[in-house]
């Protein structure tokens, strides 16, 4: 008998509902493996695409072990995003993506998922769950013990408990009716349905004027961004990512966590609101660096001179090739200048 069948039978003999506690040993192994991988590789030395591939090859198989049976039916609710967090390893997944991009923990989940084109692990787990449902239904007639376990699971489903109930809830999440076992297609594509639903959620919730309003000026597609491959200098790539995702120390973000009104989150040099557009396009502190960048861009893209300030900002943030390399280099230099100025101001305040 296949090991997954034995695991399912054992589960329903000993405990009718799979709990998070039973998953902890697997999660701990995945967490330790992720920690060790991060010690072995440097997120500045390797391209994000390769780092993500390493996660998928080395960490994800551990984190997703036994997916067929351990999704929690109590957490599969109408709230789709709550469902995507049911996989305990999802926080590990998101932490690894932040490490890959070089952002701090306050970078929003939607930002890091959109920038890397990743969907929650629960979506793949759901597909594996439904694939196993099909397999177990097919094998049920040939294994009396397995058939008995399946019938017991069906009985528990009427009480909103157990593995079979869990599979029904996943199907409902896809806006599909729960159909009879005999009519269940063997190629039921849960992953595609839930992926589409998640991307729609990302689109709606990053386009609502919140923290990611600046990112949505130039990012319209849920995908791994090309600049992450183009920019080879790891530090410069990270600095551009931080600006794009509003995961920086400009006053527009610092003030958010201090409870300061938006209109009072001002640049110390210009006394205007220090947001990403002000930083990149107007602040007097970086006039020299900005002029050098714009002169270079005008030689490469002459039409950019006719753009207004906001359009130029969008052009810079969505650029590719040599232009985006120069943008990243300039952003890195500007952030360095800002930090040096901030340190000088702090020292001056101490002397007072």
How would you sum up this structure in a few lines?
The protein has two domains: 205 residues, no CATH class; 125 residues, no CATH class. The chain is built from 19 helices and no strands.
Q: What is the averaged pLDDT score?
A: 84
- Ends apart, CA distance between termini: 78 Å
Question: In DSSP terms, counting alpha (H) and pi (I) runs of 4 or more, how many helices?
Answer: 19
Number of domains: 2
Query: Shape, please?
Result: elongated
- As a percent range, the share of strand residues is under 5%
Residues in helices, as a percent range: 55-70%
What is the tally of beta strands? Answer: 0
Describe the structure.
It is a single chain. By secondary structure, the protein is mainly alpha-helical. The protein folds into two domains: about 1-205, no CATH class; about 225-350, no CATH class. Helix content is about 65%, strand content about 0%. The chain contains 19 helices and no strands. The longest helix is centred in the C-terminal third of the chain and has 31 residues, at about 320-350. The termini are far apart. The relative contact order is 0.09.
Q: Which terms summarize this structure?
A:
2 domains; 352 residues; 19 helices
Topology of helices and strands:
Blueprint: H1 3-14, H2 20-40, H3 48-63, H4 67-70, H5 80-84, H6 90-101, H7 109-116, H8 121-139, H9 144-157, H10 162-173, H11 190-205, H12 215-218, H13 227-230, H14 234-244, H15 251-258, H16 276-282, H17 287-300, H18 309-317, H19 321-351
Helix pairs in contact: 1-9, 2-3, 3-6, 6-7, 8-10, 8-11, 9-10, 14-19, 17-19
């Amino acid at each position: 008998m296949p090991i997954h069948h034995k695991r399912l039978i054992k589960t329903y003999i000993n405990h009718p509902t799979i709990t998070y506690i039973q998953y902890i040993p697997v999660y701990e192994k995945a967490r330790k493996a992720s920690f060790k991988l991060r010690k072995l590789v440097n997120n500045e030395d390797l391209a994000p695409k390769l780092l993500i591939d390493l996660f998928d090859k080395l960490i994800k198989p551990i984190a997703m072990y036994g997916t067929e049976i351990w999704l929690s039916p109590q957490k599969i609710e109408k709230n789709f995003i709550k469902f995507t967090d049911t996989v305990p390893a999802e926080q590990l997944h998101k932490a690894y993506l932040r490490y890959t991009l070089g952002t701090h923990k306050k970078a929003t989940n939607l930002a890091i998922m959109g920038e890397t084109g990743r969907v929650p692990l629960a979506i793949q787990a759901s597909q594996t769950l439904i694939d196993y449902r099909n397999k177990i239904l097919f094998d049920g007639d040939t294994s009396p013990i397995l058939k008995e376990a399946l019938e017991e699971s069906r009985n528990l489903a009427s009480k909103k408990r157990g593995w079979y109930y869990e599979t029904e809830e996943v199907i409902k999440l896809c806006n599909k009716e729960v159909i009879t076992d005999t009519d269940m297609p063997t190629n039921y594509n849960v992953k595609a349905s839930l992926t589409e639903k998640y991307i729609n959620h990302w689109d709606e919730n990053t386009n609502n004027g919140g923290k990611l309003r600046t990112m949505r000026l130039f990012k319209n597609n849920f995908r791994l961004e090309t600049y992450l491959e183009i920019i080879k200098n790891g530090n410069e790539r990270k600095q551009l990512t931080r600006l794009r995702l509003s995961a920086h120390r400009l006053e527009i973000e610092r003030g958010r966590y201090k409870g300061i009104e938006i209109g009072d989150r001002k640049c110390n040099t210009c006394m205007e609101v220090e947001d990403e557009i002000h930083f990149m396009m107007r602040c007097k502190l970086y006039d020299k660096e900005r002029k050098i960048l714009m002169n270079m861009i005008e030689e490469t893209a002459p039409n950019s001179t006719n753009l207004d300030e906001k359009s130029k900002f969008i052009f810079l943030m969505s650029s590719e090739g040599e232009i985006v390399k120069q943008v990243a280099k300039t952003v890195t230099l500007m952030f360095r200048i800002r930090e040096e100025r901030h340190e000088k101001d702090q020292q001056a305040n101490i002397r007072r």
